[in-house]
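In this section we turn from sequence analysis to structure. A common task in structural bioinformatics is to predict how a protein folds when a small molecule is present, because the ligand can shape the pocket around it. The inputs are simple: the amino acid sequence and a SMILES string for the ligand, here magnesium ion. Study the lines below before reading on.
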Amino acid sequence: MTEDVISEFVAAVPMPAVVVDQSERIIAANAEAQTLLGHQMIGRHFATLLRQPQMIDAIEQSLRTKGPVKTRHLSNDGAQDTTFEVQCRYVDGIGAVGGGAVLASFLDVTHLEQAGQMRRDFVANVSHELRTPLTALMGFIETLRGPAREDATARERFLQIMADEANRMNRLVGDLLSLNRVESAERVRPTDRVDLTGQLQSTLTSLRPLAEDAGVTLTLRAPEQPVEVTGDSDQLRQVFTNLIENAIKYGGSGGEVDVTLTASDRDPAVRAAAARVQVVDKGPGIDAVHLPRLTERFYRADSHRSRELGGTGLGLAIVKHIVNRHRGRMRVESELGKGSTFTVILPR
Ligand SMILES: Nc1ncnc2c1ncn2[C@@H]1O[C@H](COP(=O)(O)OP(=O)(O)OP(=O)(O)O)[C@@H](O)[C@H]1O
Ligand SMILES: [Mg+2]
């Protein structure tokens, strides 16, 4: 086969690919390979372009054994790292000398690596979140068996703390399961007709005791006529509950939490008829540095306060997934010292 034909074949490979023959020179490289490794590659010794030791070993081994070898190539274009899985396959009967050559093709596996990293981070976070209450429980069990054995008052107090910690673990597991459920259904469009006014009224009713304990006045403003959306009733309730609960827990010092429902025929945020639910508090607000990360799992703006209030840091991550499933948008505006506004926009 002539080098022209080889080049035509290599040009058709849909990822960076180079051919190295038994003289250890590059005899063909497609445009993707030139973008990755540099131009004017043809005729050069492969090791001058592929300098990473594991790459050199792989091509040498494949040329010697005439068999397949797999390796990795790391590249950095100045802005980001890219990881390639490189397959070296021996092709008989081509090349200038020795009647054979190695075709090395570079598959970009960066997104797989990132997914793996995210999974590892997630497991580390979950373990850490569970370990804290578990350590406390174990400590108090020790104390109750030993020093506090005969002390009735201490026992009562410790049992209360243990119950709180066990509740926190229970909430965490519950939140993880609901995040999982929401994520696996994210591509399935919801089908219930949900009356948002009624939904918000009943959510407010169940949160009234929490608001009263926190000294917060909770008000709902909604249009006269019902506002309906196609949605998942339970999930939407979870969205409103989390936002209002957050406003009471973190913004309650402002004394009021206002929930407003509005409907419009065309909302710029979703470019369609939509309903907007706004939850406004007059609390301490959230520093702008935290805003972009607020919906990440386990992210807390004020981690001390959130933990103290029994927060798992998963609430807004769940909200984000539910809103995505409804093809809606969530917006957060906040000013330090003035309060926060969380807006959910749902297409109607
Ligand atoms: N209205 C608000 N005012 C100030 N900070 C807020 C407000 N809402 C949320 N936050 C911050 O955002 C963080 C993330 O909220 P999120 O609801 O995801 O978690 P959480 O409330 O800590 O836990 P969970 O909702 O699972 O019980 C909170 O820990 C808090 O620091
Ligand atoms: Mg919350």
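DSSP finds nine helices and twelve strands in the chain. As an exercise, try to locate the residues that line the magnesium ion site and compare them with your own expectations.
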